[in-house]
Amino acid sequence: MPAIEVVGLHKVYRRAFGRRGQEALRGVNLTVPEGCAFGLIGPNGAGKTTFIKSILGIVQPTAGAVRVLGGSPEDPRIRARIGYLPERLHLPGSWTAPAFLRTVAQLKGLVPDAAQHRRLLERVGLEAAQGRRIGGYSKGMRQRLGLAAALLGAPALLVLDEPTDGIDPLGRVEVRGILQEEVRRGTTLFLNSHLLAETERVCDRVAILANGRVMREGRLDELARPRPRWMVRFAPGPEEAVLASGFQRSGTEGVYQLEAEDPVVLNSALDRARAAGALLLELKRDGQDLESVLASTLGEAA
Ligand SMILES: Nc1ncnc2c1ncn2[C@@H]1O[C@H](COP(=O)(O)OP(=O)(O)OP(=O)(O)O)[C@@H](O)[C@H]1O
User: Fold this and answer.
1) Ligand 1: which atom is nearest the Cα of residue 209?
2) What is the DSSP string of 119-154?
3) Most buried by CB count within 10 Å: which residue of 39, 106, 213, 293?
């Protein structure tokens, strides 16, 4: 059973006085397998938050079908199994973190457990701030509290909209560790983040959303597959020998490229070039990271 199954999802935000509405989703089909770490990426205004709100039953789709954890996102029993960190957190400024977690637990239908809430606050790095009013928290601290609230009740599905927004670099490493622990525990993670390096490190599947449509979707290691191409830098010297050894000019002075699936082919070409007097300075595989996959996908869509 997929954790999330969306078919033909359309969303038009209506405007007042019969003006033409804003089309945020234009027929999205997406299946998120249970237990995977799924990353949603795309440019500003692509429809990512609208998609997330639709799968949580917060936004009513104009058309299409949504199933989450095998049921309707409007079913309270399904909602109780989902942890959600929204893009914009509204927190009660005069409360303390434990009081906030107690209320969220009650709203989720859980029995509040002060010791467990304390452990959760420690896990997100807020142990020292437990007695303080939330109103005095920094942006990153508020985000950490939101994450603790999302983790209440060990949810089967964790939906996080920009979870590390405002969190410092070391804090991001901690948050990444928590997300990886949750995935190991069996939770399905659905992550919307503008930080591609984060998505790359945490997720095993990715979808690219642009203009309200899924442009690409698949396993990260298939989308961002390393190419069988090598970039080689030689010291200034006998260019003819380098070219005769099988390398081609790359467009950057001193850097040559070679297509070779088999490392034996690469090494033979290097041996030939070096025997002819070429001096190797740098060698690297010309891989495709998520940023270049996103850029090429958006380029194709434009
Ligand atoms: N409540 C709303 N009323 C009207 N239009 C909206 C509303 N919410 C979003 N939109 C519009 O729907 C489109 C998609 O917005 P959405 O917030 O889902 O995109 P996003 O991919 O999450 O963007 P970002 O990365 O900037 O957060 C945008 O054109 C946006 O202006």
Assistant:
1) 21
2) HHHHHTT-GGGTTSBGGG--HHHHHHHHHHHHHTT-
3) 39
Residue 60's alpha-carbon distances to 14, 20, 51, 191, 276, in angstroms, are: 11, 18, 10, 21, 69
Q: Which atom of ligand 1 is nearest to the CA of 50?
A: 18
15 CA to centre of own chain: 31
User: Which atom of ligand 1 approaches the CA of 53 most closely?
Assistant: 18
The answer to whether position 267 is within a domain reads: yes
Residues with CB under 6 A from ligand 1: 13, 22, 24, 42, 44-50
Q: pLDDT tens for residues 34-66?
A: 999 999 999 999 999 999 999 999 999 999 999
Domain region containing 265: 229-286
ipTM of the complex model: 0.97
Structurally, the chain folds into a number of domains equal to 2
Looking at the domain assignment, is residue 298 inside a domain? no
Is residue 302 included in any domain, yes or no? no
Q: Which of 14, 41, 50 to mutate to test the pocket of ligand 1 (most atoms within 8 A of CB)?
A: 50
Residue 176 lies in a domain: yes
Do 176 and 246 sit in the same domain of this protein? no
Pairing of the two strands 4-13 and 82-85: unpaired
Whose Cα sits closest to atom 18 in ligand 1? 47
Instruction: Encode pLDDT of 80-121 as tens digits.
Output: 999 999 988 889 999 999 999 999 999 988 998 999 999 999
Span 171-205, pLDDT tens digits:
899 899 999 999 999 999 999 998 898 999 999 99
The neighbour count for residue 245, using CB atoms within 10 Å, is: 22
Cβ-contact 54, 66 below 8 angstroms: yes
